[in-house]
């Protein structure tokens, strides 16, 4: 039995909300989108959030470095801004691209950035210096996954997943994974999960990137996938305005969150966070809102 309760609806963004990131405290998280506002939200409060920074272009990606209290903001067509979330002050910036930035991941002192030019840009974070660029493809890089065995998996709009070896970023493997853009990747043990514009949810053997199962999961593009802390359940977000909850072991859909039944979003659901704090699932959308969901699953 699955019980869904929407506990909070946050509004305040003046444009589509594209991305979410966990906060420095368990009850905090950040959001950003088309209005260039970077907002901190407190899950213990149902009122407006705290504006911690503003940039002059849309933001598709945020990346928290918790040990440094540092939030990295990817300003499309400009580069990155480093915000100290304790003081709300910008402590550094770097302009290195004139394209959109879709994802960022930190590996030690390195920041790996995926751009709309089809490049991985590797940055020395303490020095704010570009170390090198990897030409991946001629389309958008949509997601970067650093695996437990220290490889870098890259999902791109040319429908491929590529595996690079760290720290030299040598290409190890390349597969055409979907019929269209690959939007997000999730590693679970020896399994890699990918989601795509083709609306399919696919499961792969991580070591060989060999397909084990493919599910027609949504009506339209799947924008994101996350897992609950215990790993037993997944959530997917789609352009079809829904969030779907999946039993991972059974590869089975167990609940659909939509507007009619659960006060879901009016338009595309762009990003998800499934936090440990009160087991909250957080979603953001083109409808400019952020939803906070409590999901009670009983076997």
Automatic annotation (TrEMBL):
The keyword Isomerase does not apply. The keyword Repeat applies. Coiled coil: none annotated. Keywords: Repeat, WD repeat. WD repeats lie at residues 10-51, 175-214, 215-256, 262-299. PANTHER family: F-BOX AND WD REPEAT DOMAIN CONTAINING 7, WD40 REPEAT PROTEIN. This is WD domain-containing protein, G-beta repeat-containing protein. It comes from Reichenbachiella faecimaris.
